[in-house]
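hey can u run this one w/ zinc ion bound, need the structure tokens asap thx
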Amino acid sequence: MSELTLSRLADRIDAKRDDLIQLTRDLIRIPTTNPPGEHYEDCARYLGERLAARHFDVRYVRAEGAIGDSDRYPRANVIGRWSGDASGPTVHFNSHIDVVDPGIGWQHDPFAAEVVGDRIYGRGACDMKGGLAASVIAVETLIELAPTLAGNLEISGTADEESGGYGGVAYLSERGFFSRPRVDHVIIPEPLNKDRVCLGHRGVWWAEIETRGRIAHGSMPFLGDCAVRHMGAVVAAFEAELFPLLAGKRTAMPVVPEGAKQSTLNINSLHGGQNDGLPSPLVPDSCRMIIDRRFLIEESLDEVKSEVRDLLERLKTTREAFNYELRDLFEVIPTLTDENAPVVTSVANAITRVLDRPPEFVVSPGTYDQKHIDRIGRLHDCIAYGPGILDLAHQVDEYVGIEDMLDSAKVMALSAWELITGERLAG
Ligand SMILES: [Zn+2]
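ok here u go:
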């Protein structure tokens, strides 16, 4: 066999264009909507059978007891491992198989995977079955062209990323699937655009604020105490104090898009009183707000929480009968991989060579499964890199570009080869 070169690798990937399209379409057509977590087993099995046919050692792991796991909706995961002729480093490509609800208003059937020109449409096309398919093609091509590699290649399809990853990467991380010595380098093909290396993500704090009042007849509200008006004071204080404070906090993390380079807070929901049918005339005695605070690596979680708690405590002193409860719902610490980590430099070099331009280093505004690999697996050589336009994720008429998938498959194959061999592939 003639020596492997980048042009041979690229040509072989281009020759698999039809296979890549078919694989992407097959994956999209399995409607793995989460919640509730439909058809995970079908999708895991489809991927596992393909990899087993190519001499991968395939394991299926159901996250028994994880949030959402049930016999009706098993949290199914699949991990395929290919081992080369000799021992060496392991490069792992991890993709989540779940997709969010398609919502309404699509021009294309969200689960038909229609091909129009260079695009494949469907829920999950971009986030992230297109990335999964590209990584499968990348790894299969590498194995065909370099069957004597001294190292291992893994591909996983995991559950529940969209709902926190507890039945997927978190569960597997707790069982050593994302730790050394099993794995050395992880690439997560999330849709961050084919010329970007994503180093990590901001932090998250979700909390519920409840204001309390006193119930009374709605015709005599002066005899009660309206919890919604108390919450109105909270919103007013957010507007006057908290939002300006957050807008002034800027990060050195290269977060995209630009607006996410500051701390942000979304009021996720706000609800007070009865809201079914024709209500009884009542003064509401409870009002609840859920906040979604995204924070920067320069901020501590304690500081983030105390900003809100201090604001609520101040309202206690300025507003008669103001009473609240603050409950934590969910939290994630920011993650940032070193720019000099091997997986970063190797993918960056591969982007430069395949696309003929330097990569952009970015940080994701939202979180993804890298947090579990970092915190639980204690593996820090992990990034997100994959095809697909970030802004299309979770939108109607989501699509992935076929050329983008081919390009990113070349980047993935080249960087995996270089990470395993420690050498530079000839042109
Ligand atoms: Zn995703």
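Residues 125-145 form the longest helix (21 residues). anyway lmk if its weird
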